[in-house]
Hints:
The chain is built from eight helices and 14 strands.
Amino acid sequence: MEQISIEQMDEPNAIKNRYDFAIIFDVENGNPNGDPDAGNMPRTDAETGHGIVTDVCIKRKIRNYVELIKNDSAGYEIFIKEVLNAKMEKAYAECKIEKKTKKSEEILRAQKWMCKNYFDVRTFGAVMSTGDYVCGVLRGPVQINFAKSVDPVSPQEITITRMARTTAERAETGETEMGKKNYIPYGLYRAEGYISAALAEKTGFNDNDLELFWEAVINMFEHDRSAARGKMIVRKLIVFKHESPLGNAPSHKLFERIKITNKNDEISARAYSDYIVEVDCENLPESVTVHDKI
């Protein structure tokens, strides 16, 4: 695969604006994020019953989309997969650095190489402090919170019939056996995220990366289909753009402008059409604009 060499690395042309964004997506008859500590039941808040999808789950789908579209082209490889330390060893080899170095300037040079070659490093950051080829700990400009369902969800477990046995010994007890499948009938989820121009300066996250990130968010479920996850769709991607690199308004004040209401509180929602999604665009803080990407 083609990679960017140390000689080709120039100073990062990073984004100049701060962004806050909200992703609104839903699931129908599926398990959006199973909990292995609870028999793979859909994750929920134990007190409120609201559904949860972790940030790690969302970022994995974004990584998978970028990997699919870019096919490991130069500058768009994915770091968080397979053997991590081998990639850091490659950075040391390309930068001609001896392993176990203690020189901060050499570690930063290797870190810069990692940012240039791996999309997810310059987007989300990475912990690269293990093994003999340390590249440091890097906080990325894009951060995403857990997604939470608008209303409580109803996790269910149904019994399914398996029509084939795996071994002749197991087939002696019958031709079929029972299994379990976990899902929720319907849930509308909301995740909030932030993009820091200040941190983008450190990783080189640029305007092309930003557009690819929006594209990946919008399409992250389109190539991630499975029977277990059911029907998952990104319904809205609402972006608040700040004129200043440091921001022109608190993010929570902007997120409060997004209102999602159930048309009929007496009936459990079973479709996106059961909700109304509104964004208050009146009297926005100065130098902040709102963009509906979907």
